[in-house]
Write a structure and sequence with these properties.
The chain has one domain (2-154): Aminopeptidase, CATH 3.40.630. 32% of the residues lie in helices and 34% in strands. The protein has helices at 11-21, 29-37, 83-97, 112-120, 147-154, and strands spanning 2-5, 41-48, 51-59, 66-74, 102-108, 124-133, 138-146. A 7-stranded mixed sheet has the order 1-2-3-4-5-7-6, with helices on both faces. The termini are far apart. The relative contact order is 0.14.
């Protein structure tokens, strides 16, 4: 599995996964094209044997203290093998590089697998948006991550350096 920045040439493969993953509320191709070219965002793709199997996007305008995870989607055939977590980590690392302090996202209330992934990385529910996902009338769970704390958890403890037991 490899992760790399998305390019405009990835649009068709991204849209195939988008439509399969979100059949009732997929983004349009023009919307996704705009996202891929926006200076305010960064998208990554996951590849397996030269085939795109997932993507994720971050919106973090220059100088902003907060960012939004726009989307993460994995092809059904590639789910359950940690690709979503790797994409999420790539997006959070990008947010950190942009000096973001907080990251927000919305996740469907009927998607406990995604909610669990986000919670395992330190996201906490901060609110709900009733009937946010249309036409399905599904609530959005709004989650927030303290990126500074996330970064600190990922850094080795300097006091542990060079200690042998």
């Amino acid at each position: 599995m490899s992760i790399r920045p998305a390019t405009p040439e990835d649009l068709a493969a991204i849209m195939a996964i988008e439509r399969a993953s979100f059949p009732t509320d997929a983004w349009s191709e023009p919307m996704m094209r705009e996202e891929l070219s926006s200076p305010h965002g960064r998208y990554f793709v996951s590849e397996e044997a030269g085939r795109l199997v997932g993507y994720g996007g971050l919106r973090a305008p220059q100088g902003s203290r907060d960012a939004d995870i726009q989307t993460i989607a994995i092809a059904e055939s590639a789910r359950g093998r940690g690709r979503g977590r790797v994409l999420l980590e790539a997006l959070l690392t990008e947010a950190s590089a942009r000096r973001v302090h907080e990251v927000f996202l919305e996740v469907r209330a009927d998607n406990p697998v995604a909610q669990s992934l986000y919670a395992s990385e330190g996201f906490a529910e901060v609110g709900r948006r009733p009937r946010y996902y249309q036409p399905d009338d599904v609530d959005a769970v709004v989650m927030r991550l303290d990126l500074t704390a996330w970064d600190a958890r990922r850094q080795p403890d300097p006091e542990d350096a060079g200690v042998c037991t």
